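Just scan my protein:

——
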Amino acid sequence: MEYFHDDLFPSTNVTWSPLFSASEWIDLSTMSPDSIPVPEQISLKPQDMQNYSEVKDQIAQEKLEKSQSNRSIAFGNNNGVGNGNLFDNIDESAFMHNFSTMVQIGKEKQELVRLLTKQIHFHYNNRFCVFS
């Protein structure tokens, strides 16, 4: 379901309807501040949408529960996160597989950064060379 972000799109003033008549506009400087009319405000929210501010706490809770579920599945624990210690009930073989995969990805990124740095230094150093 999509929600209307009333935090980003608050109610707005009605600008197509005048607040004053011409004579009231001329007399505006003599009016007391309490008698100056306040512009009418309308909501931009479509009728079929619900305000995000009404459900944001519920959505945050659902996201937290989903991330905890995903984390427990990633570590090989299908029963959810253990009570107390985060590493309770973690399948050690699944953890080691995920850990070694992360280490391998890290090594590949390191090698890529090393090659790019080498290439940048080569181009930087050669831009000052004059070839005859």
In short: The helical segments are 22-26, 52-74, 92-126. The mean pLDDT is 77. The radius of gyration is 31 Å. The longest helix spans residues 92-126.
